[in-house]
Specification:
Blueprint: H1 3-8, H2 23-34, E1 46-50, H3 53-68, H4 78-89, E2 100-107, H5 113-130, E3 134-138, H6 140-143, H7 148-156, E4 163-172
Helix pairs in contact: 2-5, 3-4
Length: 197
C-alpha cells in the first residue's frame, strides 16, 4: 500500500485472535514508533511491551476496580464514561484481550508528553496496518495515571517513577473471517479544513 492508503485504511480493531504477534512484526512496529517525531528531538517516550497473559489480566482487573470507583459527571468524556459504566457492570477488559499491549510513557513534568506519545502511537498503528495486524488506541491507563495501584504495577514492569502512561496500543491479529483488518474507510464528518489564503 502507498502511505496514503495506509493512512486512509487504518481502522481500530477491538476483537483479536489469541495468536501471538511474530517477533519480527513486533520489532518493526516498535522501531516505527521509536522513529516518531518528538518535541526538540527529545525521544523521551518509553515503550512498555506487555505480552504476559497474567500481567494483562492483572491490569484489566485493576483497571476495572479503579474505574468502578468513579462517578460519571455531565462533562465526563464519552469514552471515559463508557469505561466507568462497563466497569460497574463487571467483566470489563480495557485491552480487548489483545495478545500485546504497548504502553507509551513519558516524563510527567514534560509539557510535550502527550503529543510525543501520540506520534509514537500513530507510527505504530500505521506499521501494524502495513503488516496486516489490527490495533486500537488505548486511553484507559492514561485516565488512571493518578492511580497508585496501577502505577505500582507499571513501576514493577519498568516504568520510571518520573514517568506516567499517556497512551497505549492493543495489538494483534484481527478476529475477522479472513484474519485481516477491516479497512473500509469511514466518511469524514469532522476535522474541518480552513484555508486562510
Amino acid at each position: 500500500m502507498t502511505a496514503y492508503e495506509l493512512i486512509t485504511t487504518r481502522r481500530s480493531t477491538r476483537r483479536f485472535r489469541p495468536d501471538p504477534v511474530p517477533e519480527e512484526f513486533l520489532a518493526r512496529i516498535l522501531e516505527a514508533g521509536r522513529h516518531a517525531p518528538s518535541g526538540g528531538n527529545n525521544q523521551s517516550t518509553h515503550l512498555l511491551v506487555i505480552r504476559n497473559k497474567d500481567l494483562l489480566n492483572e491490569l484489566a482487573v485493576l483497571a476495572e476496580e479503579e474505574f468502578a470507583k468513579m462517578e460519571i459527571l455531565p462533562d465526563t468524556y464519552k469514552s471515559l464514561a463508557n469505561s466507568i459504566r462497563a466497569s460497574k457492570k463487571g467483566g470489563y477488559v480495557f485491552h480487548y484481550h489483545a495478545p500485546v499491549l504497548i504502553l507509551t510513557a513519558n516524563q510527567k513534568d514534560y509539557s510535550n508528553n502527550i503529543a510525543d506519545c501520540a506520534c509514537v502511537l500513530e507510527n505504530m498503528m500505521l506499521m501494524a496496518n502495513a503488516l496486516d495486524l489490527g490495533s486500537v488506541w488505548i486511553n484507559q491507563l492514561k485516565w488512571l495515571n493518578g492511580s497508585d495501584p496501577v502505577n505500582e504495577v507499571l513501576f514493577r514492569i519498568g516504568m520510571e517513577k518520573s514517568e506516567r502512561v499517556y497512551g497505549g496500543l492493543a495489538l494483534g491479529f484481527p478476529d475477522t473471517e479472513d484474519g485481516l483488518p477491516v479497512r473500509k474507510a469511514l466518511e469524514r464528518t469532522g476535522n474541518p479544513v480552513t484555508f486562510a489564503d
